[in-house]
């Protein structure tokens, strides 16, 4: 299938997803379930990745700025800006593309090949909206919290690693993370994260929804969902950076 | 009553259904039989609107279903129940939640009323003490029965069954066949069953349509089958040694 056909089908699907829900109460209940399944369950992995990212950034920066002309607080500043600008949004989004993306594509794909989606359609339910909209709402609203959490944990991880290895003092690190702080960077990261979450969920849902065949094909759809979500995250990272920071 | 008029359906230019004309009667179990790949499932899915037909009309009690717009079709579908080949129960929901699902979506009942109706339907299909189990925890026959319970939860006017007894042992298959027949008469529904199971034909064959290579090849009742001289139908029906023996026995009397 050609690129334009995929794009067309993707937007037609989105049109169905954002049509009027049958029963708001049911959609609300599903959204709460998805918040737990896609959002809360990701806290652990995001925390682990963030603490190590912060630690590695701090140690690498320290070894690359060993020049006595450069002040030590630069290590803290670099750790903060790296986490805020890139790691807590883009890298966390790429990790979530793997975790959430494959989950969504395989869940919806399995429902497609086992005719559960047909069963919904036969009942008169808008299956696209019922299955995808709660996931989009849950991830778009929850992922900025994950991003914020990642920033805090990453900076904390950097401090633990820096002080433990002895490349920076607590005083310098705290001075560094406060130095020339631009609050807009947090807004920028949260906007990016919300858009990445939308891309991950909608692209993965698209691949799951149009799965066909058997379990092997669901696996292929799941892989495609992760790969394409990751590519679009990187592409939109460039576009959003240009739009929001230029 | 469902009437199918001059239906044509093709996939990527390959014709799958050709000029199908058939009448499915109310209060009866109407069977569509045919070999694998003959177009039975495509016909059934075309009738319920899961496939758009290329040409022709599908009329549900005077309403041309395939000409309705999306919203009207959605309304119409609330009167349709369908049993899929694999059951198509929602994996992440319990048996009770599966049956309650259409009530949740389309009724204004409170929780207790919905639960009561779900239990009524489950009792009707002889599912007892399995309400809190998940589909993966029950047998194939039970899954089919739960799917029937879900299909009848909203008192539909039309019931569609796609190979309801595939993958089941003969005894359970007969139970499912009988259940479909009883429910059809009880609710006075128009029921269409896709099957290639000969026991089903003998149990439920009030009105049987034989489809061959995408065309309607023969139509009649189970009693007419033995007297039919249609070669393709005879080849299909009497493919096994057992059915050949039954035919020979009948003819020798």
Coarse shape of chain A: elongated
Helix content of chain A: over 70%
| Strand elements of chain A, count | 0
Oligomer: heterodimer
User: How many domains in all of chain B?
Assistant: 1
Over all CA atoms, what is the radius of gyration of chain B?
A: 19 Å
Identify the overall geometry of chain B.
globular
**Helix/strand-derived class of chain B?**
alpha/beta
Keywords summarizing the entry:
heterodimer, A: 246 residues, mainly alpha, 84% helix, B: 253 residues, alpha/beta, Rossmann fold, six-stranded mixed beta sheet, four-stranded antiparallel beta sheet, 41% helix
Notes on the structure:
The complex is a heterodimer of chains A (246) and B (253). By secondary structure, chain A is an all-alpha fold. Chain A is built from nine helices and no strands. The longest helix of chain A is centred in the middle third of the chain and has 41 residues, at 73-113. The mean pLDDT of chain A is 94. Chain B is of the alpha/beta class. Chain B has a single domain, classed as Rossmann fold (3-Layer(aba) Sandwich), CATH 3.40.50.300. Chain B is built from ten helices and ten strands. Chain B has helices spanning 40-47, 70-77, 95-106, 111-124, 140-152, 170-187, 198-204, 222-225, 231-237, 241-252; strands spanning 2-11, 14-24, 29-33, 55-60, 63-64, 80-83, 158-162, 190-195, 207-212, 215-220. The longest helix of chain B is centred in the C-terminal third of the chain and has 18 residues, at 170-187. In chain B, 42% of the residues are buried. At the A-B interface, α5 of A face α2, β6 and α3 of B.
């Amino acid at each position: 299938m050609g690129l334009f056909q995929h794009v067309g089908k993707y937007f037609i699907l989105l049109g169905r997803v954002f049509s009027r829900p049958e029963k708001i109460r049911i959609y609300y209940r599903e959204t709460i379930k998805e918040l737990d399944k896609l959002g809360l369950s990701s806290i652990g992995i995001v925390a682990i990745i963030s603490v190590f990212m912060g630690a590695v950034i701090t140690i690498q920066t320290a070894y690359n700025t060993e020049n006595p002309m450069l002040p030590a607080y630069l290590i803290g500043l670099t750790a903060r800006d790296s986490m805020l600008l890139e790691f807590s949004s883009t890298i966390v989004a790429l990790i979530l593309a793997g975790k959430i993306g494959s989950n969504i594509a395989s869940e919806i794909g399995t429902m497609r090949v086992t005719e559960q989606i047909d069963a919904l359609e036969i009942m008169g339910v808008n299956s696209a909206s019922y299955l995808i909209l709660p996931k989009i709402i849950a991830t778009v609203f929850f992922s900025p919290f994950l991003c914020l959490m990642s920033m805090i944990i990453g900076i904390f991880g950097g401090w633990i690693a820096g002080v433990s290895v002895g490349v920076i003092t607590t005083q310098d690190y705290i001075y560094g993370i406060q130095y020339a702080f631009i609050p807009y960077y947090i807004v920028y990261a949260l906007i990016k994260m919300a858009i990445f979450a939308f891309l991950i969920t909608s692209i993965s849902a698209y691949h799951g929804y149009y799965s066909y065949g058997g379990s092997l094909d669901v696996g292929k759809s799941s892989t495609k969902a992760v790969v394409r979500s990751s590519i679009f995250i990187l592409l939109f990272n460039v576009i959003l950076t240009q739009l929001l920071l230029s | 009553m469902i009437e199918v008029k001059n239906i044509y359906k093709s996939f990527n230019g390959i014709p799958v259904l050709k000029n199908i004309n058939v009448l499915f009667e109310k209060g009866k179990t109407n069977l569509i039989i045919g070999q694998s790949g003959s177009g039975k499932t495509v016909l059934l899915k075309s009738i319920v609107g899961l496939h758009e037909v290329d040409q022709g009309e599908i009329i549900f009690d005077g309403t041309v279903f395939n000409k309705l717009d999306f919203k009207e079709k959605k309304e119409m579908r609330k009167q349709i129940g369908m049993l899929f080949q694999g059951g198509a129960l929602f994996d992440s929901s319990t048996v009770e939640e599966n049956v309650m699902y259409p009530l949740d979506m389309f009724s204004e009942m409170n929780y207790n009323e919905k639960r009561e109706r779900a239990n009524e339907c489950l009792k009707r299909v002889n599912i007892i003490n399995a309400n809190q189990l998940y589909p993966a925890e029950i047998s194939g026959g039970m899954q089919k029965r739960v799917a029937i319970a879900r299909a009848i939860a909203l008192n539909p006017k039309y019931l569609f069954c796609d190979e309801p007894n595939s993958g089941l042992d003969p005894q359970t298959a007969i139970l499912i066949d009988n259940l479909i027949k009883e429910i059809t008469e009880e609710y006075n529904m128009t029921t269409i069953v896709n099957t290639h199971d000969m026991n089903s034909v003998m149990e439920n064959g009030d009105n049987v349509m034989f489809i061959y290579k995408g065309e309607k090849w023969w139509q009649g009742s189970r009693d007419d089958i033995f007297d039919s001289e249609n070669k393709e139908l005879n080849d299909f029906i009497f493919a096994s040694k057992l059915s050949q023996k039954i035919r020979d026995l009948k003819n020798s009397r």
